[in-house]
Amino acid sequence: MSTAEPGPVLSLRQVSVRFGTVQALHQVTLDVHRGDFIALVGANGSGKTTLLRALHGMLAHQGSRLLADRGALQAMVYQRPFMLRLTLANNMRLALWLAGVPRATWPQRMESALRRVGLLDLLERPARALSAGQQQRLALARAWVIGPSVLFLDEPTASLDPSAKKEVEALLAGFSADGMTLVMSTHNLGQAKRMASRVIYLEQGQIHVDLPTDRFFGESLEGPASLFVRGEMAWKLD
Amino acid sequence: MNGFGASVRTAFDLIANADAALVRTVLLSLSVSGSACLVAAAFGLTLGAWLAVARFPGHRLAVLGVNTLLALPSVVVGLVVYLLLSRSGPLGSWGILFTPSAMVMAQTILVLPVIVALTRQLVADSLRDGGDQLRSMGAGPMRCALLMLLHDRWAVLMVLIAAFGRAIAEVGAVMVVGGNIDGVTRVMTTAIALETSKGDLPLAMALGIVLLLVVGAVNLLLSLAQRGQGSALAGVR
User: Fold this and answer.
1) Is A34-45+71-196+212-235 assigned to CATH 3.30.450.20?
2) Domain ranges in chain A?
3) Residue A37: what are its φ and ψ, rounded to 5°?
4) Which of A32, A209, B159, B170 has its CA 20 to 30 A from that of B204?
5) CA-nearest residue of chain B to A56?
């Protein structure tokens, strides 16, 4: 895990998001520092995905979203990656084209990204013919290839078998070791403990706890976060 | 039963003898309906994709309107185009009434709503699946919609086949704006209508069978192309 440097690369200030009558995020203030590996945890509907989308700038919201470098690229990997009915190579080219990466650098970038995720030999295979684990690795390559300053991950291993999960976790650990900033939502507290440098606990669209990983799991938390960590959320009646 | 049997025999005789008038009529039918579909596709695919992502006051009304136009009577289209192209009409100076060009124009108008409505639905469904992820990669709404046309290219082909089927099977519009002139604007459906009015029902039925066989052959070619692509993508979800 990388040590966080001062000066946030991305900040939210008093951000609120509402979907109809549902307040998905409420007055969230958050700084993401270079090299952070943040795990967003919380029950279903607590606002993890909404927070990721707000951080990525994909949601209309109240409050402000501040980027240290306005030209920096960001990428997001979803639980079930969407691949166009094209080859791996063309899905990668699409990502590079959409991100506005100079065409001259595409071959070298694609080769290093696909080599990194172990899919270089499958360059001309249809992306949708890959297994779920391979598709998730391709999604990581597709995100990594544009050189994002921050990579957002929405439960990236939730629908994978243990072996594929391990492969994806190894890749994420590698990205983090290289200094990439990652923000990941997860239901898997073990995964958060193993991988993240910082854990944020959300409930009802608000940040209740934001601590370095060792303190999050080491300190005696109070209230709902404590129940969540102890796995007793399901028994909360009120 | 005998009448139907005679029709089938006549149909196969016409095909086997490669009757010159029949070949000319079939080729004109294919070229008029094919051209109409190509022109309508150029506008309809883009318009359908745009309608899938555009949000403006009256959007729902526009979608409702396009869907309603799926039931557009071909004779009404023929009448409208006739009025436009007639000597006193606003486009009368073009001088294309009772020519294949007028028939292409009428069929283009007829199949445009089919392509727009089906494309809009197709793109909207695909966007629900992957639109968010394409947007997260930096694609704007219209680019997302056009990428979905690429993603669903075989379904788009089915839309075009449906439009072609609508065009080649219609009789009202081409009859009104084409005039069913032998050797000039006579297509399969107007020939069938003519033979029916003359009371030569076996020949009319035979021409109907030929029409179905021609359309079937076009669909077969397209599905073979699709299958060829499909086998290359074996196992693709």
Assistant:
1) no
2) 34-45+71-196+212-235
3) -125, 95
4) B159
5) B136
